[in-house]
């Protein structure tokens, strides 16, 4: 009965049925959170773990049917590793290898030339959770752990691990959160009114409304910017400026589907209390599970600003569990490269991911050099603070989103024959631009920065 209704709904909306199932599943998280608040808030931890496990499993079955066993196997194996292997480096390495190999095998056996919503989508979120769990347990045995807030002093129970893994607010698309945060939720500590359900309905509805707004915008405009148009002779016959503008607008609207999912999921976490982040100057914050800084995302003219505003929890997970743990290398650039390499592999096996994240590294490196150049040059600093800045802002935004789009093309088109065709159609604009920019910085610095400041910058 449900399947024909979903199929009809998907056809009427002009969307794939898996996408409709996913959005419905995210929205169903709100009734689950209300059940928890109204009927289960004061129940023992065992009851809450069971509720979170069964509700998450129900969403998994609704979306992926019997393939839910993949996640159950990985959760069970992770628990056995913690219980049987103890708080050791071997546990951490075994967890990392097993979870990543399982995920990559899933990518390999289910891969197509399109981005499909299948069981590997929530599984990549779960993979980070379980690897992070082993690291947090390991940190709990170190006297001077730099990850004290997430460190686990004792091995969690099987039911606790399942509840943490399948929690309905984060199982499908994130956000990432630690077992310590989940334990605080179950212990009724994540609330602005001690001992009572949190007053989080209004903040949750705000995020839901914002997510719904982005969904409407995406549904209205994305049909005008389909991925498939890039691969047509008609697109290649368009003027160069048209191809660039199309690519820019395509990227902007294409990212809104991610923004929609993360905002709706965040609202579920806020409603349950997991999004509570304490109070500052008497004002309660609900951003512990924020995956988007919407205002920054929409207004920043910098690539770093977009990265800082987008998929925040995953970036924080990578910074905490990869970048900072590479400190022993003594080289931030190498730590950054290894972090991006991990994220590349974690996303999948397609060549498009490699190109996307390598472009990200190149973009950020060049942007940092230009920011330093502007800060050190009196002429450029004066220009940036002049009445011409609004015009400069528009130009900067255009450049920013054009090359964000150029990097996003491989990420979305996946295979080299597709993204290479698009990059060729714009004459490898992104690669040429950043190569020229990188090579020109030393000459611009010599021309625009006083000798004294150049010497000081070199010492720094």
TrEMBL record:
<feature type="transmembrane region" description="Helical">
    <location>
        <begin position="337"/>
        <end position="366"/>
    </location>
</feature>
<dbReference type="GO" id="GO:0006656">
    <property type="term" value="P:phosphatidylcholine biosynthetic process"/>
</dbReference>
<feature type="transmembrane region" description="Helical">
    <location>
        <begin position="391"/>
        <end position="414"/>
    </location>
</feature>
<keyword id="KW-0012">Acyltransferase</keyword>
<feature type="transmembrane region" description="Helical">
    <location>
        <begin position="208"/>
        <end position="225"/>
    </location>
</feature>
<dbReference type="GO" id="GO:0047184">
    <property type="term" value="F:1-acylglycerophosphocholine O-acyltransferase activity"/>
</dbReference>
<dbReference type="GO" id="GO:0071617">
    <property type="term" value="F:lysophospholipid acyltransferase activity"/>
</dbReference>
<keyword id="KW-0472">Membrane</keyword>
<dbReference type="InterPro" id="IPR004299">
    <property type="entry name" value="MBOAT_fam"/>
</dbReference>
<comment type="similarity">
    <text>Belongs to the membrane-bound acyltransferase family.</text>
</comment>
<feature type="transmembrane region" description="Helical">
    <location>
        <begin position="46"/>
        <end position="62"/>
    </location>
</feature>
<comment type="pathway">
    <text>Lipid metabolism; phospholipid metabolism.</text>
</comment>
<keyword id="KW-0443">Lipid metabolism</keyword>
<protein>
    <recommendedName>
        <fullName>Lysophospholipid acyltransferase 5</fullName>
        <ecNumber>2.3.1.23</ecNumber>
        <ecNumber>2.3.1.n6</ecNumber>
    </recommendedName>
</protein>
<dbReference type="Pfam" id="PF03062">
    <property type="entry name" value="MBOAT"/>
</dbReference>
<comment type="pathway">
    <text>Phospholipid metabolism.</text>
</comment>
<feature type="transmembrane region" description="Helical">
    <location>
        <begin position="20"/>
        <end position="39"/>
    </location>
</feature>
<keyword id="KW-0808">Transferase</keyword>
<keyword id="KW-1133">Transmembrane helix</keyword>
<dbReference type="GO" id="GO:0005789">
    <property type="term" value="C:endoplasmic reticulum membrane"/>
</dbReference>
<keyword id="KW-0812">Transmembrane</keyword>
<feature type="transmembrane region" description="Helical">
    <location>
        <begin position="426"/>
        <end position="444"/>
    </location>
</feature>
<keyword id="KW-1208">Phospholipid metabolism</keyword>
<dbReference type="InterPro" id="IPR049941">
    <property type="entry name" value="LPLAT_7/PORCN-like"/>
</dbReference>
<keyword id="KW-0594">Phospholipid biosynthesis</keyword>
<dbReference type="GO" id="GO:0030258">
    <property type="term" value="P:lipid modification"/>
</dbReference>
<feature type="transmembrane region" description="Helical">
    <location>
        <begin position="255"/>
        <end position="276"/>
    </location>
</feature>
<feature type="transmembrane region" description="Helical">
    <location>
        <begin position="92"/>
        <end position="111"/>
    </location>
</feature>
<keyword id="KW-0444">Lipid biosynthesis</keyword>
<keyword id="KW-0256">Endoplasmic reticulum</keyword>
């Amino acid at each position: 009965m449900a399947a024909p209704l979903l199929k009809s709904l998907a056809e009427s909306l002009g969307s794939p049925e898996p996408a409709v199932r996913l959005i419905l599943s995210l929205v169903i998280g709100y009734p689950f959170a209300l059940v928890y608040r109204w009927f289960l808030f004061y129940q023992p931890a065992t009851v809450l773990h069971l509720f979170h496990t069964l509700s998450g499993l129900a969403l998994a079955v609704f979306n992926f049917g019997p393939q839910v066993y993949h996640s159950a196997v990985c959760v069970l194996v992770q628990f056995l590793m913690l219980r049987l292997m103890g708080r050791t480096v071997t546990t951490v390495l075994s967890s990392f290898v097993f979870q990543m190999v399982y995920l990559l095998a899933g990518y390999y056996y289910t891969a197509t030339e399109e981005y499909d919503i299948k069981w590997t989508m929530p599984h990549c979120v779960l993979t980070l959770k379980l690897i992070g769990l082993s690291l947090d347990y390991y940190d709990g045995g170190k006297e001077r752990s730099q990850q004290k807030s997430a460190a686990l002093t004792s091995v969690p129970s099987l039911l606790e691990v399942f509840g943490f893994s399948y929690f309905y607010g984060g199982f499908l698309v994130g956000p990432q959160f630690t077992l310590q945060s989940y334990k605080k939720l179950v212990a009724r500590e994540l609330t602005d009114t001690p001992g009572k359900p949190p007053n989080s309905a209004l903040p949750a509805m705000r995020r839901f409304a914002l997510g719904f707004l982005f969904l409407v915008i995406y549904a209205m405009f994305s049909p005008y910017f389909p991925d498939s148009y890039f691969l047509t002779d008609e697109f290649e016959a368009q003027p160069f400026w048209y191809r660039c503008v199309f690519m820019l607008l395509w990227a902007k609207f294409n990212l809104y589907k991610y923004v929609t999912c993360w905002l709706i999921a965040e609202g579920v976490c806020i409603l349950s209390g997991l999004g509570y982040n304490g109070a500052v100057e008497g004002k309660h914050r609900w951003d512990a599970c924020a995956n988007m800084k919407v205002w920054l995302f929409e207004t920043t003219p910098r690539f770093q600003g977009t990265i800082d505003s987008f998929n925040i929890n995953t970036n924080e997970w990578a910074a905490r569990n990869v970048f900072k743990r590479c400190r022993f290398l003594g080289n931030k650039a190498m730590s950054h490269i290894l972090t991006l390499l991990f994220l590349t592999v974690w996303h999948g096996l397609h060549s498009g991911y490699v190109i996307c994240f390598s472009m990200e590294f190149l973009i950020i490196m060049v942007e940092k050099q230009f920011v330093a150049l502007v800060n050190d040059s009196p002429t450029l600093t004066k220009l940036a603070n002049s009445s011409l800045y609004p015009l400069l802002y528009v130009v900067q935004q255009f450049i920013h989103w054009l090359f964000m789009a150029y990097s996003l093309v491989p990420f979305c088109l996946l295979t080299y024959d597709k993204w290479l065709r698009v990059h060729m159609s714009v004459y490898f604009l992104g690669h040429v631009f950043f190569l020229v920019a990188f090579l020109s910085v030393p000459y611009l610095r010599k021309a625009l920065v006083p000798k004294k400041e150049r010497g000081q910058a070199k010492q720094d």
